[in-house]
Specification:
There is one protein chain. This protein has a domain of 229 residues: Spore Coat Polysaccharide Biosynthesis Protein SpsA, Chain A (Alpha-Beta Complex), CATH 3.90.550. Helices cover 41% and strands 18% of the residues. The chain is built from ten helices and nine strands. Strands 1, 2, 3, 4, 5, 6, 7, 8 and 9 form a nine-stranded mixed β-sheet that branches. Helix 2 links the parallel strand 1 and strand 2. It starts with a helix and ends in a 24-residue tail after the last helix.
Length: 335
């Protein structure tokens, strides 16, 4: 019994942060919050951060229960919202769930269990797509990251990784404070995919600060991420790949091209190469040519974005949040 009480005391507390910006996702938001409130073990805190939308803020305060509703106190965008959630929470671990995603039962337990190892500073989980109108036949599963989901080529079992998918990730709060939070220049603003990779940049800075730190992918921590029809088309696919390239260039310039692009090089050489070979071998099948085009076009758009991002001025957007008592944001040197 004493051992059980000791384990209960040492289990980390959990805050779940959900960022929202529009009333158009109201039902999705309610489902996301509902999926968190039924978790066992329960989250100590459930925080909804509303990104500069007064109407949404007032409706959430009026109609939602069991959740702390706060306005984004930082610069507009997803990164500012996430930083606000970290700032207002007090739990040992902060998890982030997208407002159009729902957590499967057991999500909190699967996220928290690995933190029994003190080397683990972050845990991310599996993100399954939930296609509103069905998955397009041409859409390669190797590119499911385009719609914010886990993709073919990721580990199938628990394993250390470089970074997480932002829809389903968690970190020790002290680590988030120590590195200064998420980078504003990379966070999505509303529906505009003008930047991404703020979670990649964050994970790289955590690793640079503490090379022994473990960021663990745990597929048992599973969520479902809704993919609307507006994202299941070639125009969105191409634009999202281009933006990924732009953002990766910024991360590479900040953190060094070695750590920033190591996974991407392996992904193209292995995952994409195998996918192309597989589809070429069955080119007579319906949809194979379109899938080959998507694989090739996706890589091409990403490379084009990277080249543009590499020569584009970095600009002035960066960190708008300086946690009290925390050090300055750190990045590795350019390799």
């Amino acid at each position: 019994m004493n051992n059980a009480l000791s384990a209960e005391r040492t289990s980390p507390t959990l805050a779940v942060v959900i960022c929202a910006y529009t009333l158009d996702r109201w039902e999705d938001l309610r489902a996301a919050i509902g999926s968190v409130l039924v978790q066992d073990p329960p989250a100590e805190e459930v925080v909804l951060v509303v990104d500069h939308n007064q109407e949404l803020l007032e409706r959430a305060e009026r109609e939602l229960s069991g959740v702390l509703v706060v306005p984004n106190r930082m610069r507009r965008g997803l990164s500012g919202g996430r930083n606000t959630g970290v700032e207002v929470s007090h739990s040992d671990v902060v998890a982030f769930l997208d407002d159009d995603a729902t957590a499967e039962l057991g999500w909190t337990g699967s996220l928290l269990a690995p933190y029994g190892d003190p080397r683990v500073v972050g845990v991310g989980g599996l993100v399954r797509p939930s296609w509103s109108e069905g998955r397009p036949a041409w859409f390669p599963p190797e590119f499911d990251w385009v719609v914010g989901c886990s993709y073919r080529g990721q580990p199938r079992k628990a394993a250390p990784v470089r970074n997480f998918i932002g829809a389903n990730m968690s970190f020790r709060r002290r680590e988030l404070l120590a590195v200064g939070g998420f980078l504003d220049a990379l966070g999505r603003v509303g529906t505009r995919p003008v930047a991404s990779c703020d979670e990649t940049d964050l994970c790289l800075r955590i690793a640079a600060r503490n090379p022994q730190a473990v960021l663990l992918y745990e597929p048992g921590a599973e969520i479902r991420h809704r993919v609307p029809e507006s994202r299941a088309n070639w125009a969105y696919f191409r634009n999202r790949c281009y933006v990924e390239g732009l953002s990766k260039a910024l991360v590479a310039r900040r953190c060094g091209s070695g750590p920033a692009l190591a996974n991407e090089r392996a992904y193209v050489r292995s995952t994409i190469a195998r996918a192309l070979a597989r589809n070429l071998a069955r080119i007579w099948r319906p949809g194979a040519l379109r899938t080959i085009g998507a694989l090739s076009g996706g890589v091409g758009a990403t490379v084009a974005g990277y080249l543009v991002g590499w020569v584009r001025p970095l600009g002035s957007r960066g960190f708008s949040w300086r946690p009290r008592g925390a050090g300055q944001p750190q990045a590795g040197g350019r390799s």
